Amino acid sequence: MARQDYISNMDEWQKGFSFYHDLQVRFGEIDGFGHVNNTNIFTYMEESRIAMFKELGLMTDWGAPDSEEIPVVADLQCDYLAQIMYDEKLKVYVKINEVGSSSIDIHYLGINEKKVPVFTGRGAIVQISRKNGRPVKWNDELNKQLKNFSKEAHV
After folding, report:
1. Which of 58, 64, 128, 60 is nearest to 94 (CA)?
2. Higher confidence at residue 1 or residue 147?
């Protein structure tokens, strides 16, 4: 297994996850070699991240047409650990690794039905103003909610 620079100890890192989103690989997501095309993993991370945001109640505000703040992906990376095949069922774990003043660092772990890690990832999400595109600090309530959510994550 490759060593990712955002993971110092894989076993300890895995223990920090509790929230997950279930996915099943669709036929249209595989490539000519019979495994999931690498770009689809980013979609899996997006779906799982949005599911976590919904759990936190963030999508109600961020998804509203009159919302002044919106989330944007500042960076996103993925490390592929094993092939994923058509019709496999995956659990994509998501956790908030770090909360900044207007951003969050999110980590991802994809696990197949055999409990084998198939990918890991991380990315930064920044809350910005819809009007000027500049970062907007979390309000006190949301900052506390984000930090508490990350502390509650234990498998």
Report:
1. 58
2. 147
